[in-house]
Model the fold of this input.
Amino acid sequence: MSTVIFEPTGRRIEVEAGANLLDVCWAHHIPIESLCGGNGACGRCAVQVTEGEVPITAEQRAHFDEERLARGWRLACQTRVEHDLRVNVPAPAGSLKSHIITSGEAPKVHVAPAVRKHFLKLNDATLREPLSDSERIKRALPDGARLRFRPAALRKLPETLRQGRQHVTVTVWDNAVLDVEAGDATRHNYGIAFDIGTSTVAALLVDLNTGDELGVAAALNTQRKYGEDVISRISFCREHTDGVETLEREIAGLLSDLAAQVTAARGIDLSHVYEYVAVGNTTMAHLVAGVDPSPLGEMPYAPVFTACHTMLDGPKGAQLGHRPFELPAAIGAYVGSDALTAVVALELHTKPGTRLFYDIGTNAEIIAGGPDRMLAASAAAGPAFEGVKIECGMIGVAGAIDTCTLRDGDLAFTTIGDAEPVGICGSGLVDIAAVLLDLGVIDPSGRLLPRDACPDTVPPKIRARLHEAKGTTRIALAEDVYLSQRDVRELQNAKAAIAAGVDILLHHLGVTPDQLDEVLVGGAFGSTLNPRSAQRIGVIPAVKLDKVRAVGNTALQGAKAYLLSTDLRREICAAREHIELHELSTEPDFTDRFAAHMPFAVG
Amino acid sequence: MSTVIFEPTGRRIEVEAGANLLDVCWAHHIPIESLCGGNGACGRCAVQVTEGEVPITAEQRAHFDEERLARGWRLACQTRVEHDLRVNVPAPAGSLKSHIITSGEAPKVHVAPAVRKHFLKLNDATLREPLSDSERIKRALPDGARLRFRPAALRKLPETLRQGRQHVTVTVWDNAVLDVEAGDATRHNYGIAFDIGTSTVAALLVDLNTGDELGVAAALNTQRKYGEDVISRISFCREHTDGVETLEREIAGLLSDLAAQVTAARGIDLSHVYEYVAVGNTTMAHLVAGVDPSPLGEMPYAPVFTACHTMLDGPKGAQLGHRPFELPAAIGAYVGSDALTAVVALELHTKPGTRLFYDIGTNAEIIAGGPDRMLAASAAAGPAFEGVKIECGMIGVAGAIDTCTLRDGDLAFTTIGDAEPVGICGSGLVDIAAVLLDLGVIDPSGRLLPRDACPDTVPPKIRARLHEAKGTTRIALAEDVYLSQRDVRELQNAKAAIAAGVDILLHHLGVTPDQLDEVLVGGAFGSTLNPRSAQRIGVIPAVKLDKVRAVGNTALQGAKAYLLSTDLRREICAAREHIELHELSTEPDFTDRFAAHMPFAVG
Done:
């Protein structure tokens, strides 16, 4: 028997040696695509083997290039399980993608990107005026004198002009000529915005001529196998001499896969993607740049860089066509570029009023204020709200319990993708805790009461779910899915950290919660969160619920805006200067406030 | 028996199979270094096998890295000749180097290079103000806000700051941070200027802090095996699909070797070379950039590029530390960047007066004028003045006849390096022709008279040198070295093309030769040229001889100035705008003038 662990759910299945991997998926209802019935024809059952060996056969070679084979890609239908394996099964079209949030509120942007394509009909050089090709191009372009050819574009130039008979499309980025193409290729002008989260990574393909979104691809961050949260990835870098290179290679490969996927879906050639913008937390930004994030893990938590970083040839090892790759500026070590682009996406820096914005991912970033003054902080909430470090926790993908209500005297759940429940994601956790607090199954101190200690008002079906295991109380939610006392403590820690952070920022701002015009919740967590539940557990302050709004993936939308407008880039930089970063751990009353927020409000 | 052809002299030697290559050199007086007597210890007998196979043994591996082995480098003492070989024997220290001209007139330059090194003692980041490392550096630098880190510098930053305990040297180039080093490394700040000629390549190591020249390395252009002149290299590119790549790889390897050599000689680490500037004819510039020069070989002879071209990571395949590599602007297809830097080196664009400047290399570039108006042209002289296409011609290296005079009723020669004469270089050719014209052995029509047709005044020893071979007249110069009737015709073509070009430029300028303030002759040819001989054969117009001056390698000196001064870069660009390029082949009276200059002046 061999063990196969299926990602992203983490399900472990024992299989007999020699079993066909696609058959195993089918037998255990693991969602996987296949159009040809498993005879190796359609290529849809592609999976990534991240641990364990699967030989590269001719059948595998027929579907993947060397580079993807080396990264473990195999057709499940052509794979026999001979050893223990860890296999990442990409969600079927539309499933994972729809659960990794990529849409969100976005600013109005006048489309004026850094990348411009110009179609030129050049006059032939003459013997009397034998101008060089590059000179004729520069003269035909607005402000052409300042342009410099990138070496690759210059290399292509003579053959391109010959092919196009002096009709040429010139792609200009900043003051550089990035590419030349024969004929009129102006309509193929694309960029990709990446949102690099600790758990998930999303790619958004954007038409740089029109500003249209052309497609989205998303995947779990494959760095997860080296640590689930940023702290453990930082530790991995500190503990392994090739740690940075390993994580850098991992993310470069993933970004390349997503870019290939999102362009292929629209039949777009990757060579027509001229610029990439990636936002993410500061640790992710360091790793994409190949920069050791270790200083982020030790006092005084100073990043190596926060300013906008441009990699003209893209991240090392990435297959992104050697095009400019921008990492917008971060606000600080634990308030990343994703928070900055969110500020701009939400127009917090220009819209009158005082707002509170959270992005609760693996860490919680908090922004409070408005055009006059804006404060930012990062609350070390831990990854509980991402479903991590919760015993049956999971990130928000198919099978995760994402909502919980009281119905017919019992707990009722929904799951992402309406799949069999296999775990609890952040919003589910908040809902479950809120319902249990209302019922009194969790008391204000955070104790998950044993069955016998429950108030009499607790319905029998719920009471029946309570049981003791491994010396602590649990409440069963589904087969093999439960919430434990330890999970509630994790939740308390997380919500107290956030609530204390909010307290401190509002205090510095001199406003009380009721003076806030809006409370905006970003990220995947925000989009499925029940605001009432969030307020019940204390992660949203005492404001009227109609002031609370889920704003979606503002980080990605902000990155898209960054791609589309050079004016907005300047605006982002200016906004950043204006944000005051507060390091909560240096606030004298943080500990007190944290302790004060540890209990839940009395119901 | 196998044949070994020794470069640069082209000597062919038949050797028995299995012969030791160092022994062969010794036996035939081929200058080669060896300190250990041939036991593989000193490594001085390194040669480059450019054709034929020599196996890579453990002894060879002990001395060369993979990259050099792949390029044919071997120790002669560890090489057995088993097949026909072509072997390039680097000249012993000081010999080739001293014959490739690297010194020359240079402009006064205020040292203000693009590369600046700054030593900073940073304050530690604090918990209260956890500024990023890059931000602390920018704040400590003049005009730091505009700086962007190159990816490689950012990668190094955290470890560098840790090692130097916040004492760091930051290398800035333009608006980019190129490198960071622990501690104070400001005094190690170097650049290399390359002069890439069709036949020879020179590297000049410059201290960018002081402007001092620290050393020179020079070598034959290893592209020569694909064609001796630019036209044949352009043809090679047209005829071979990988032609451009082949020539590009060749020059990248050679530049890498020269840079390694010139830095090693001073114990300087290549990582302290921060910028490269390379001048050369336009074909060479295209090949360094990996750009197909084919358009230079067909009407209307329009280059692919003439503007300054910067390769931020250096030429493809070069081992130059991925540092910025600048190709200054060219004037046109056949008047390269070397002519432009020469103009600046000689201050032709600022110094009052009217001057004529030639650089007679494989082609002849002519500049005429002064600050008010300056004209440029390229005369398709062919490579005769470089000793190419002359039956016993050779470039100006050891063994080349470089001067000829009449002494004791016979021809007397000197050779470069006082070596046995093995051929004739350009200046030798001019001298020989001038002497023979004076004697009447060559008549004004260019006929090399047979012994019996010579005037009676020709001394018997010279008369005895004349003989017939292969149906034409020759004059013997040394064992196996002669001048033929065909050679005289080549010379006539070359000098007529130059003289016609000079005529036309002076005509457009509205001056006669006697109105010229100076005639400046650049390049290797100029430095050994006898002005009287040059005037005798008609390659220098009718000016007083004291107005004629050899100015040395102004191209390389101009490139050095380019390295040292950003002001001068701007000046060079401005000077280029001001130069009128004349395409001689489109001048209506070029053919007439060319024909008129074909005969020699009557003595």
About this structure: The two ends of chain A are 51 Å apart (CA to CA).
